[in-house]
Amino acid sequence: MSWIFLIFAGLLEIAWAIGLKYTEGFSKLWPSLITVLALMASLTLLALALRQLPLSTAYVIWSGIGALGTVIAGFILFGEHLGALRLGCIALILVGIIGLKLTS
Q1: What per-residue confidence (pLDDT) applies to 101?
Q2: CA distance 13 to 15
Q3: How far apart are CA 24 and CA 55, in angstroms?
Q4: pTM of the full predicted structure?
């Protein structure tokens, strides 16, 4: 169950990171409210995952899911550039996440 909590926590990290873009410095009520709720839910699920998982593994996977998802969302939603070097670095993050999961 801890891994499920961790995966959903990472997905919610993507949601609140994207939400930050839409809050325009927390000047828009609804995007700000949704962003704060996603942040709170993400941290709560991370805390629940930490009951069973090692801190170093859980935190790196949580932030890695958020980083990968945010890069993909930036490309899809905001037209951000994905060059070969950037894709290579993203692949390294993914390999690290998989490696940590396999060794935990």
Answers
A1: 85
A2: 5
A3: 32
A4: 0.90
